[in-house]
Design goal:
There is one protein chain. The chain has helices at about 1-30, 40-135, 140-145, 150-260, 265-295; strands spanning about 320, 325-330, 335-340, 340-345, 350, 355-365, 370-375, 380-390, 395-400, 405, 415-425, 430. The strands form two sheets. Strands 1, 4, 5, 6, 7, 8, 9, 10, 11 and 12 form a ten-stranded antiparallel β-sheet that branches. It is about 65% helix and about 15% strand. Helix 1 packs parallel to helix 4 (about 150-260), helix 2 (about 40-135) packs antiparallel against helix 4 (about 150-260) and helix 3 packs antiparallel against helix 4.
């Protein structure tokens, strides 16, 4: 609601500024040089003061807008931290599913073995039952005993009957154990399958939540960009209006001076010409300087090592969206030192180590987002920021060209890119492009 009111206020202000600008132009066009008076000049100065007051009022609104953007960035940071936790949960769930898959496969092997053993004992048991039925069951044991010819023979026959009965009992016990083993294995198998299905359902829920949170981050980025665009548009219009009024004041003062000092017309004309020439040169110089500062290289680095053995860290893109050095920060609108270079790229594109070394940092930060720092044997260090996710851990040794993360827009960022820094062995930041 607060943002909607700001946009309405900015729209009304834009309309008022446009009207004021048109009136100033019309007034300048309609006003003859010889009709200028001191009152006309005073009126123009009053209008300039009024525009400055409007700009101050707008700045107050923009300060509120800055606060709103900061709140959005804070919310973006929290969402990104939640996304990192969700990503880890998804990895855990996937590992659990893999474990259940292995467990199920093992239980299916065990079940097949138990069923095979049950079938063997069941077949043996059936044979003994048929033999018992054909030989008269328990009565055959007595017939064996009654056929004894001596006491010694009777004892031998009793031992034989006891062994046969023990064998039959063992077959029945082992059959019962085999059947119980089959039942227990089946129950364990079903339990593992049910647990796997539950984990799969939880995984799908986590993935859906991850998509929702990423959409929220994208929406916040779009809102921040929209507010920043409105900020820039209003500032531009106000400055244009102020410049127009200042120019009108200058023109009016020049005309007034001509009226009261006709004898200095030639001198005044020469002065104006000199001033215009100086302004033109200054404008050309400023434009040239701005062009040099804003010039963006179309390429950088290659797959072969550059100066110092550095590889290009983003093989899929060589486009520098923001160079090293002082610039106007895209979020705060204020001058600041850009510590590295920004290389624009597609979301999820692999980022590689520019040089072999040891990972000293792999973590999330509200400014750099997901970032990795690598220390190299020559004492230098490279840093890779705003990743969507990281592929290495602190303490890990990596080789040049090894994937260490993926392009994203985490932290203080409003678009997918890699922020790449190089610190030399003396601990000073250097322009990464000097190595490519």
């Amino acid at each position: 609601m607060h943002n909607a009111n700001q946009r309405k206020w900015l729209t009304r202000l834009r309309q008022g500024l446009t009207l004021s600008l048109m009136l100033c132009v019309m007034a300048a066009t309609a006003l003859p040089a010889y009709a200028v008076s001191q009152q006309d000049i005073n009126n123009l100065k009053s209008k300039g003061t009024e525009l400055q007051s409007q700009k101050n009022d707008l700045q107050k609104q923009l300060d509120g807008l800055d606060q709103s953007q900061q709140q959005a960035m804070n919310q973006k940071t929290l969402l990104e931290q939640k996304i990192n936790v969700l990503t880890e949960e998804i990895q855990v769930s996937q590992s659990m599913i893999d474990q259940y898959t292995q467990d199920i496969a093992q239980k299916e092997v065990e079940l097949a073995e138990a069923q095979k053993k049950e079938a063997e004992y069941n077949d043996l048991f059936q044979k003994r039952v048929r033999y018992m039925e054909e030989s008269g069951g328990t009565l055959s044991y007595w017939s064996v005993l009654f056929q004894a010819t001596s006491f010694s023979d009777l004892l031998d026959r009793m031992n034989m009957v006891s062994d046969v009965m023990a064998y039959d009992n063992k077959i029945m016990d082992e059959l019962a154990d085999a059947r119980q083993k089959v039942a227990d294995t089946k129950a364990g198998l079903e339990e593992s399958k049910a647990a796997q299905e539950a984990t799969q359902a939880n995984l799908e829920s986590q993935q859906a939540e991850l998509t929702t949170e990423r959409n929220k981050v994208d929406a916040l980025i779009a809102e921040i960009q929209s507010q920043s665009a409105a900020y820039a548009d209003q500032i531009t219009q106000l400055e244009a209006s102020q410049n127009q009024v200042e120019q009108e004041i200058k023109n009016a003062e020049a005309a007034y001076a001509q009226q009261i000092a006709a004898q200095k017309a030639a001198e005044e004309a020469a002065r104006k010409k000199a001033a215009e020439e100086a302004a033109r040169k200054a404008a050309e110089e400023a434009a040239k300087k701005e062009q040099q500062q804003n010039q963006t290289p179309n390429g950088g680095g290659s797959s072969t090592p550059g100066v110092g053995g550095y590889l290009w860290p983003l093989p899929s893109s060589h486009h520098i969206s923001s160079p090293f050095g002082y610039r106007i920060h895209p979020l705060t609108g204020r001058p600041n030192l850009h510590r590295g270079v920004d290389i624009s790229g597609s979301y999820g594109a692999p980022i590689v180590a520019a040089k072999s070394g040891v990972v000293v940092i792999s973590r999330y930060n509200s400014s750099y987002g997901n970032y990795v720092a690598i220390s190299h044997s020559d004492g230098s260090r490279t840093l890779y920021a705003h990743m969507s996710s990281r592929a290495v851990s602190a303490g890990q040794t990596v080789s040049a060209g090894q994937t260490i993360g993926y392009v994203g827009s985490t932290g203080s960022s409003t678009g997918n890119h890699l922020h790449f820094e190089v610190t030399n062995s003396a601990g000073n930041l250097v322009n990464p492009m000097s190595f490519f």
